[in-house]
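Reopening this one. Same input as before:
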Amino acid sequence: MPGSDARTSVTLDRIRTEMQQHLGKELAAGLYIVATPIGNLGDITIRALSVLARADVVLCEDTRHSRSLLAHFAIGTPTRPYHEHNAARERPQVLAELAAGRRVAVISDAGTPLISDPGWKLVREAIDAGHHVEALPGASATLTALAVAGLPTDAFLFAGFLPPKGAARRTRIAELKSVPSTLVFFEAPSRVADALADLAAGLGDRPAAMARELTKLHEEVRRASLSELAADLAKAPVKGEVVIVVGPPQHQEATDADIEDRLEVALKTMSLRDAAKAIAEALGVPKTRVYDLGLGKSRSPDA
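Same output, byte for byte:
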């Protein structure tokens, strides 16, 4: 449509102008933490491209992978590996480059660097040395999965990768059981069924989502209970990068024993009326229920 073509042309002009403005500015010396796409190359930002093009060197987990990304956008900045196996050896050199006034960009294989990736120690030491450190926000598998899971987002905990061995994995899950937030995990496709089964056993059968290949051609999000997802994945294993999102603990109605335990403590310093009000609000139960239990307790021969 003619109108659509005109709007597209204006948009392209605005994008071109924005990029030219960024590229025309001198990039200050410092360490730049640059988010890159998790799949769809269109998710890279204008700022990310401009910093990668103007940096003196790009540190990346896998130079072969990252060169493909840079080549796609005709960026010829030199790359150098920086990963968990060489980070301790490379950090002094990077800090020396920063001290010499160079511009160093850090990227991961996909998404936002430092999230389950090496780099935070470099950031800490660069800050301690007084160097400029700047983060360029962008794609994140954690936030992308959380956004499409259909689970509470007001509070969440990113728990990274669960331990690969069963016993250690179950211990870690037990540590997370009482966290009153949505939980987000990364998982290898070969272990996702076992992880979901252990999560169901350790956390209870909470609502969950399994997202894989986010932003890519075969993106898939399955939403069901943990046990249902575990059964599905056990029958038909999946391929690709996987994110598991698990809902927070389900609210459980307080038992009479729970209320009576609280009454025993509260009645030492409060009237029954005040204790009933406070406990009802704390436990989310009717005040009359707490009051009646308090009356029964006061009439008990053991009271």
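So the earlier flakiness isn't reproducible anymore. For the record, The radius of gyration is 27 Å.
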